[in-house]
Amino acid sequence: MTRKSRRLVLIAAALGMLGVAAGLVLFAMRDNIVFFYGPSELADKKPSPGSRLRIGGLIKEGSVVRGDNLKVDFVVTDGKSDVAVVYVGQTPDLFREGQGVVAEGVLVSPGRFRADSVLAKHDEKYMPREVADALKKQGVWNEGADKPAGKP
Known about the structure:
28% helix, 2 domains, five-stranded mixed β-barrel, alpha+beta, flat
C-alpha cells in the first residue's frame, strides 16, 4: 500500500466514524428535537409520568382559575384534546384565555401537567407600537389589510 492510499483509507475511516457518531446523536435526540408537543400529540405519544417536556396550544376559554400564592390552573387545548396545567408563579402579560401558550415542566399523569415556566405566544402579525412607529419613520412600514396587534 502506498502512502497516498493509506491516507485515503484513514480519511474515509474517519469520515465513516464521524457519520456513525452523528447518526447516534440524532437517534438519541429524536424525541427532544420538537419545540413542544400539542395536546393531541401528547395523547398519541403517551409519555410516561415524570417525563420533562414542553406542551403548547391555546388556553381554553373559561379554564383559567387563579388561586392563592400565584397558583394558576388552566387547560391547554388544540381543539381535539385538552391537558390540564398547574403553574405556580407570575404569568406573562399576554397570558389570557384564547391566547397561545407554551408551558415547560413535568407530566404528572396522562392529561395532567405541572409547569415550571409559562410563555405566552402571539401570532406573526403582532408588532409592538414602538417598532411599528420606527418602521414608519424609516418608510419601511407597509400598512395593509393586516394591521399589527400592538397597534390600536
